[in-house]
């Protein structure tokens, strides 16, 4: 199962991604991929040590693409670098059993760096390998622009989940992401509502999502324990009575049934 998760900044996308990864790793082998420039997935899981993003591994980029990051325009480099060995080499084990592995992609700096193609090519090739070649569950915590996904890679994603709050701005972002996702070939696109406090918010969101033809896979209630977990830098799955965690657990079962 290959799952891409996206949404407007601040809607709880990364908390959802990390919690979902932990829950699914109880039954499956999971790769949780941080492909968001903010790179907060590891901290949402309670990982405090710094993980070097792959986009900053200059020696690796040079070795695999035969070009240095910031190379001058027109320099020849490999556009299909070898990445099959990298998931095992570059991932961090979250649990003792190795059921959940974390990878941080990082982002490519655009301003004043010259040609940024080598790093971009390596990141996209690595994500392509994870989605097309790996049998494990892969969860991609994406930015709203989903720029890491190329057309062929996107076609292999089983589902894209757009996380959204019940606000006009979030709904506008959902509509833009849905349009972009459809353009690059993603066939199954659903929405998860987050931080829902009352029926008025839920009705507002449902009305807007029905208008654009987007299925609501689940609804996560507002939960103060999410903030507590964040302040303590602890994973939400540790909070047994968390309403949000329990809702994500129910949603996880629906996600795994989408492929059946």
TrEMBL record:
<dbReference type="GO" id="GO:0005524">
    <property type="term" value="F:ATP binding"/>
</dbReference>
<keyword id="KW-0547">Nucleotide-binding</keyword>
<dbReference type="InterPro" id="IPR014433">
    <property type="entry name" value="CooC"/>
</dbReference>
<protein>
    <submittedName>
        <fullName>CO dehydrogenase maturation factor</fullName>
    </submittedName>
</protein>
<dbReference type="GO" id="GO:0016887">
    <property type="term" value="F:ATP hydrolysis activity"/>
</dbReference>
<dbReference type="InterPro" id="IPR050625">
    <property type="entry name" value="ParA/MinD_ATPase"/>
</dbReference>
<dbReference type="GO" id="GO:0009898">
    <property type="term" value="C:cytoplasmic side of plasma membrane"/>
</dbReference>
<dbReference type="GO" id="GO:0005829">
    <property type="term" value="C:cytosol"/>
</dbReference>
<keyword id="KW-0067">ATP-binding</keyword>
<dbReference type="InterPro" id="IPR027417">
    <property type="entry name" value="P-loop_NTPase"/>
</dbReference>
<dbReference type="Pfam" id="PF01656">
    <property type="entry name" value="CbiA"/>
</dbReference>
<dbReference type="InterPro" id="IPR002586">
    <property type="entry name" value="CobQ/CobB/MinD/ParA_Nub-bd_dom"/>
</dbReference>
<feature type="domain" description="CobQ/CobB/MinD/ParA nucleotide binding">
    <location>
        <begin position="4"/>
        <end position="235"/>
    </location>
</feature>
<dbReference type="GO" id="GO:0051782">
    <property type="term" value="P:negative regulation of cell division"/>
</dbReference>
């Amino acid at each position: 199962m290959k799952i891409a998760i996206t949404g407007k900044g601040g809607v709880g996308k990364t908390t959802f991604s990390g919690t979902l990864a932990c829950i699914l790793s109880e039954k499956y082998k999971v790769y949780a991929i941080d492909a968001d420039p903010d790179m907060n997935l590891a901290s949402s899981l309670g990982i405090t040590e710094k993980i070097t993003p792959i986009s900053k591994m200059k020696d690796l980029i040079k070795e695999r693409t035969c070009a240095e990051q910031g190379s001058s325009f027109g320099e020849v480099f490999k556009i299909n670098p070898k990445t099959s060995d990298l998931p095992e080499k570059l991932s961090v084990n979250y649990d003792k059993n190795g059921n959940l592995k974390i990878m941080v992609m990082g982002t490519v700096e655009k301003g004043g760096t010259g040609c940024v193609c080598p790093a971009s090519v390596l990141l996209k090739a690595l994500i392509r390998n994870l989605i097309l070649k790996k049998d494990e569950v892969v969860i991609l915590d994406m930015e709203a622009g989903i720029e890491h996904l190329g057309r062929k890679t996107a076609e292999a994603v089983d589902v894209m989940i757009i996380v959204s709050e019940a606000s006009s701005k979030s709904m506008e972002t959902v509509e833009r992401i849905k349009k972009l996702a459809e353009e690059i070939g993603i066939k199954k696109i659903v929405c998860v509502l987050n931080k829902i406090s009352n029926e008025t918010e839920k009705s507002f969101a449902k009305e807007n999502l029905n208008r654009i033809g987007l299925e609501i896979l689940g609804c996560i209630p507002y939960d103060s324990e999410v903030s507590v977990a964040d302040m303590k830098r602890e994973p939400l799955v540790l909070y047994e009575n968390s309403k949000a965690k329990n809702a994500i657990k129910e949603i996880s079962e629906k996600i795994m049934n989408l492929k059946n």
